[in-house]
Amino acid sequence: MNAGKFEVVDYDSKADKFFIVIAETLKLWEKEICPHENCKSQAITCYDHADTRSWRHMDIFGKRSEILCNVPRGKCPSYHRIYQVKIPSEGKGKHFTQTFERYALALMREMTVSKASDLKGECDQRMWRILFAHVDEIYSKLDMNDLVWIGADEMSARKGYDYMTVFADMMKKRVIFATEGKDNETFLLFADALYAYNGHPKAITQAAIEHEEPRL
Question: Where along the chain do its domains lie?
Answer without folding.
Answer: 1-90, 92-141, 149-210
